[in-house]
Specification:
mainly alpha; 2 domains
């Protein structure tokens, strides 16, 4: 009974607050679904490009539904976080009822759209959503598994990008995606640990089991693994035959710079709490990413 007045007193949600709940600035994570389209040399095949774009939209809907669900679950915890406390739910600008309806509508729309793109793709979307549910309610509080779950989400989206246009995804591309996501996720955990200090475990239980030294060791292992895996991928005879270019190794310096720049931001600038946002806000990282995309595309499609 005591909670009834507070629920009734929830302010009407503004459109801006509801949009903020969707976290549209995080949607660029879903661009990994285009990897298969680009590396299968189907970028300019209109039908395939349209299906990949539709797949991107589906994952944006599902991801936004998962974000709302996560914010509902972590509302009290997020009030302890210097940045997350300003989100609509922890700040009290959106009621829980409105957020629940929004999450359900997003997931239903995403599942419906996935079904239209084929059963194989829909199955991967369902698997991705199940992973998000498991992460929200359990895995995010389990050391190591928390970051592996995040990385697995990127792998599922990469595979789904191939399934939706009916092309196989290279195992090396899957490995590179997984390792790259692990690298960024460990960096995010390190930033959270240092930013929140003594309040870290109040915000995320798994942070109790991490330390800056341990995370630095994990990042070192994953950094080396990522570089080696990407180098092998670019020099693989199978990849060279498939892409029609033996010069993809020329993109390795961009990968190295991206990794080194992120390590610099994490260790020297104490940034890295939002790796995907850094890709858009840190000019050297953004320019490097664009140069990598342009160079890889030119090598694959023009055969420079």
């Amino acid at each position: 009974m005591a909670g009834a007045p507070a629920l009734a007193a929830a302010p009407p949600s503004s459109v801006l607050d509801l949009i903020q709940l969707l976290r549209p600035w995080q949607w660029h994570k879903n661009t990994v679904v285009f990897a298969a389209l680009i590396f299968a040399k189907r970028l300019f095949v209109v039908h395939d490009a349209a299906r990949a774009t539709a797949a991107f939209a589906v994952f944006c809907l599902i991801a936004s539904g998962a974000y709302v669900m996560n914010d509902l679950r972590d509302c009290e915890r997020d009030r302890q976080h210097p940045d997350k406390s300003r989100r609509p739910l922890p700040a009290g600008r959106v009621g829980r009822g409105a957020a629940l309806v929004l999450a359900a509508a997003l997931v239903a729309s995403g599942v419906g759209g996935a079904a239209l793109l084929g059963l194989g793709f829909a199955g991967l979307v369902a698997l991705y959503f199940a992973l998000q549910v498991a992460y929200t309610f359990q895995l995010k509080d389990v050391v190591i598994l928390d970051v592996m779950a995040i990385a697995a989400g990127f792998v599922i989206r990469a595979i789904a990008g191939g399934v939706v246009i009916h092309v196989p995804v290279s195992p090396w591309l899957i490995i590179c995606t997984f390792l790259g996501a692990l690298f960024l996720s460990f960096g995010k955990r390190r930033h959270e640990l240092l930013l929140l200090d003594e309040r870290a475990t109040e915000h995320r239980t798994s942070l109790r089991e991490y330390s800056p030294y341990f995370l630095d060791q994990m990042m070192s292992v994953v950094t080396a693994s990522t570089v080696v895996a990407y180098a092998i991928y670019t020099a693989s005879p199978e990849v060279i035959h498939k892409l029609g270019s033996d010069k993809l190794y020329l993109t390795i310096p961009f990968v190295l710079f991206g990794i080194f720049r992120y390590l610099y931001l994490v260790h020297q600038r104490e940034e890295g709490g939002n790796p995907t946002q850094l890709l858009l806000t840190d000019r050297p990282l953004l320019v490097n990413l664009l140069l990598w995309v342009l160079t890889a595309t030119a090598l694959i499609y023009i055969g420079v």
